[in-house]
Design goal:
This protein is mainly β. The chain has no helices and eleven strands.
């Protein structure tokens, strides 16, 4: 194809470098300035054990957040484990909650039905549901530069003392962001 390739000696004997080539097959050397589409370029991870609660029908931050700075045409694969517990209040009214993922202030992964997680048809009062919510989302709309991701949650119906808590019992919630070359 054209162009040239050269190997040059180090500037002094103290600057020796070794390059080992495979002995049985041809290969391609990948550089970070020209990754192949689909390659993982970087990984950022964050976690929290700080407890956050919400007893309202308004989405509020859970305390789980991470930022990543990406190159042009990259995507971000978001992997999240959000620990939560949902507690019914003083009646047998079902208690459900919703959790969503945001990039900045934009919803990028949100449930269509806000009553998607929780305690439905039981007459037990003060019943509690503990679970780790696992989600993954490939964000193809991330901007070149810095992108911040976070989760938010709310109860679907704020009545009778219903609440949702995040990171309960010191279980860490984690968010991992992987930059994927475009």
């Amino acid at each position: 194809g054209g162009g040239s390739f050269s190997l040059q000696a180090p500037s002094s004997s103290a600057n020796n470098r070794v390059m080992t080539l495979p002995d049985s097959a041809d290969g391609t050397i990948l550089t970070t300035t020209n990754p192949k589409a689909g390659n993982i370029i970087q990984v950022v991870s964050a976690s929290t054990t700080s407890v956050a609660s919400n007893t309202t029908e308004t989405f509020a931050d859970t305390g789980l957040t991470a930022s990543i700075t990406i190159s042009a045409n990259s995507k971000v694969l978001v992997l999240c484990v959000q620990h939560l517990d949902v507690q019914r209040g003083t009646s047998s009214t079902p208690c459900t909650c919703a959790v969503k993922l945001l990039r900045g202030s934009t919803d990028i992964f949100a449930p269509a039905n806000t009553k998607n997680i929780g305690i439905e048809g039981s007459t037990d009062l003060q019943k509690i549901l503990f679970l780790p919510l696992h989600l993954s989302f490939l964000d193809t709309g991330a901007s070149t530069g810095s992108n911040t991701y976070k989760t938010q949650g709310r109860v679907a119906t704020a009545s009778d003392g219903a609440r949702v808590r995040f990171q309960d019992d010191s279980n860490p919630s984690t968010i991992t962001l992987l930059e994927v070359a475009g």
